[in-house]
Amino acid sequence: MELLSQYGLFLAKIVTVVVAIAVVATIIVNLTQRKRQRGELRVTNLSEQYQEMQEDMSVAMLDNTQQKLWHKAQKKKRKQEAKAAKAKAKQGDLKEAGKPRVWVLDFKGSMDAHEVGSLREEITAVLAVAKPQDEVVLRLESPGGVVHGYGLAASQLQRLREKAIPLTVAVDKVAASGGYMMACVANKIVAAPFSIIGSIGVVAQIPNFNRFLKNKDIDVELHTAGQYKRTLTLLGENTEEGRQKFREDLNETHHLFKSFVQRMRPELDIDNVATGEHWYGVQAQEKGLVDEVGTSDDLLLRLMDGREVISVRYLQRKRLMDRLTGSVAESADRLLLRWWQRGQKPML
């Protein structure tokens, strides 16, 4: 018995030491990351990537002898290019090439549109260097979410429009509700044939547990200053007046949504498409919701002809604790989003 007691005490000491080390390590990591809270901007030349892939495929089709000759020729070519670049640098000729650029951004939106934080940094970076002949392509995927989040995301895209930088939004999967609010800002919308487009409507739902609480003899008191500080509640008894005000607020939000889309795409028959319905890419083109049917891949390949296509991504740095809690929240968000999507569209 004494042996078991000593063994248990030994284990407790070991666990205490391990926990203490883990806590100290976490504090050190968090202190280190606080010094570099700002995110990282990643710039990738997609034109060069595509050219390398094209070359790899071409070389793979050659026999061994031809491959050796090709590699030899490429080595010689790179030496000549490096020599020429060095000579230009010595002469002080550091002017940028006159080739127009296509800046490629990506937005995969969640329900709360927290990705707008990265989008605003990416757009600011592009605006800092973009030339008049440049343009922007946004690869967008979002079924929508909270009004204020997607309203801000659309406003970020308007910054490009105000600077007269052509913006094309490419939708491969879905741009619905708040996602379409973002897409309609573009000068041109390209959608894949079976992408989901539209859903220009507003929805809100709230459960009410008042009857359940009454059955359990539980009272809920809610005190407000202002007639409509609260309209519908989770626990209190809702009134018809509150319901009516809630519907009025929804209708007002819908009106603002419609007005925004109409202002961005004045040729659109807004009353015909602002019913809350969604359509597939081909149908959306017929209704004027999109301008062209196609994938983002084909769009970028076309733009590579005579242009330099560059991807810009802003990656937020997160603390260790934020990563742990954030991953759980994002998993729950994705699960809810998946359930919502399954209820909103047919399955194949």
From TrEMBL:
Places the protein is found: Cell membrane
Give the EC number. Answer: 3.4.-.-, 3.4.21.-
According to the entry, every stretch annotated as the Peptidase S49 N-terminal proteobacteria domain falls at 2-157
* Transmembrane region(s): 6-32
GO molecular function term, any single one:
serine-type endopeptidase activity
Name of this chain's protein: Putative protease
Q: Which residues form the Peptidase S49 domain?
A: 160-309
Q: Which residues form a coiled coil?
A: 36-97
Which keywords annotate this record?
Answer: Cell membrane, Coiled coil, Hydrolase, Membrane, Protease, Serine protease, Transmembrane, Transmembrane helix
Give the similarity note. Belongs to the peptidase S49 family.
Which cellular component terms (GO) are annotated to the entry? plasma membrane
